[in-house]
Amino acid sequence: xxxxxxxxxxxxxxxxxxDGTHDSxxxxxxxxxxxxxxxxxxxxxxxxxCDYITEQDHLKCVQRVKPQTNDVLFSNIGSVGDAARVxxxxxxxxxxxxxxxPNPEKVDPLFFYYLVxxxxxxxxxxxxxxxxxxxxxxxxxxxxxxxxxxKDKIAQQHIGHVLSAxxxxxxxxxxxxxxxxxxxRVLYKEWFVHLRFPGHEHVKIKDGIPDGWDKKQVRDVLxxxxxxxxxxxxxxxxxxxxxxxxxSRDFIGGYTTDDESxxxxxxxxxxxxxxxxxxxxxxxxxxxxxxxxxxIVANEAAMSQEYLY
Length: 309
Known about the structure:
Blueprint: E1 5-9, H1 10-13, E2 14-19, E3 32-35, E4 51-53, H2 55-61, E5 72-74, E6 83-85, E7 93-94, E8 98-102, H3 109-117, H4 119-126, H5 139-144, E9 146-150, H6 153-193, E10 205-206, E11 209-210, E12 222-223, E13 242-245, E14 252-256, E15 262-263, E16 269-273, E17 279-282, E18 286-288, E19 293-298, H7 305-308
Parallel strand pairs: 3-7, 13-18
Antiparallel strand pairs: 1-9, 2-8, 3-4, 5-6, 5-8, 10-11, 12-19, 13-14, 15-18, 16-17, 16-19
Helix pairs in contact: 3-6
């Protein structure tokens, strides 16, 4: 079954196409969340690791635009193309982020969100980005670029609900993973910090460590890694045979077909983000993402890679 499409611009199917404040209010340790492009890189708005501003500065920011439910945030500076949907009317301000407010008379809000997230939509916008050190898309280009969208509202709603069901499943699995990771951290602390490991009652403690244990610096148990050429985000593909692993919470930052950048040591590698402090255990061939992504490999004579992780 085929459906009719129509070529439009964003203002034709949106009530509002704008961007966040152009000011730089002073950041605070707490207050009203202040969301930038880096806080929507996971497809969701990351309120757990965001910046904050005062309520007074927030009131100034929302004079330009106040995000509301079903708005779509689109990163148009830096990590161009990342998108997230506003799920409720909680107060927050935005900067360096475009905001699209779909017109429900013309497009289903859920379908519109997945349209903005789609490879087709992002491909259109990435072709008109400017800047090298700091890529960006002007608001003028965002408003004028033409693209095709599905006109049938019933089909839109069906597509949106199907894709949303998959997203809900992914989110539930992500939460389960977080709980498992938390359990692993608690178990590690119990065994190796409080030294209440199985059988600890029968082991003597000498110089602060159990008898038979040793204390070393991390570098004493590492092997050298042939570091590959790191892949810049501009070189990423949306899909491909070689995943590009970086320090973001997304884990897979994109794909590449550049075989020269592949890490294939024949053993698992620990990926460490020196900005995010996120560790990942990788046991498949991959390319290494840019921006502070470090690779760690154990000296197998000292300990296994799994134990080091």
